[in-house]
Sequence to fold (180 residues):
Amino acid sequence: MMKRLIILSDLWGKKKATWLTNYTELLKNDFEIVFYDSCELAEINTTIYTEENLHQQFVNGGIEKAIYKLFEIEKQNDTIVLAFSIGGTIAWNFAMQSNRKLLMYCISSTRLRYESKKPLGNIFLYFSENDKFVPKDTWFKIMNLPILKVKGNHDIYRDKNFATFVCEEIIKNKISYSKK
Fold:
């Protein structure tokens, strides 16, 4: 049986997610992939499709709606999560509130800087060194998490080479996670 991998989109949802094939093509042979559009989970109105409008809806109740929706549809405990930007914040809080031990990969999830508790499981966070909203070094120490910074901008996850790097890590770690 294939290991289940949940992918949570960034704030743009599937409308601007052509880059996701960089991940799904590399992971499809090793995982049962389930994709969630963060906008759909959060019931975001995309009529005004601007970063500011989408962001405001997420922080004003959308994140909570998405977490609740995941509670309704995700019942499996033994899951790996790959989440991008706002999707990482949704995944983190879903893991916290459900008390599930997940293997999580959150990329450019800068809103995590506001979190004060860490969920169970193994967590890998990737941030661009040029992203001004990356959590401070002290946050990483408090959370007892390594600082994994890469060259690039906030949307580094759209880069094919970066996607290959992350996918290789996910495949490699799947084996050790399965043995726990």
